[in-house]
Request: fold
Amino acid sequence: MTSYDIIRKPIITEKSMSGAAEKKYTFEVAIGANKVQIKQAIEEIFGVKVEKVNTQRILGKKKRMGANEGKRADWKKAVVTLKADSKTIEFFEGMA
Reply:
């Protein structure tokens, strides 16, 4: 699994943008990835130093369409905190 397979996409919300000021960035990651793999992928892709990684499994919501019932996919969220001496991730700069 490559670094780009592990890091799926950034999560752009009001709450995640407020964390960017404290060098905390939120990403959707592969559900099978662990914290060590996530840390290595972030450091490789963005060229930054990661201090810690917090992860959460998000369970998909149940949805109905008439009589049919379905479920959205489960996914995993990672909040990555960078070291104080690390540079910021430029992708998030213009959005805050």
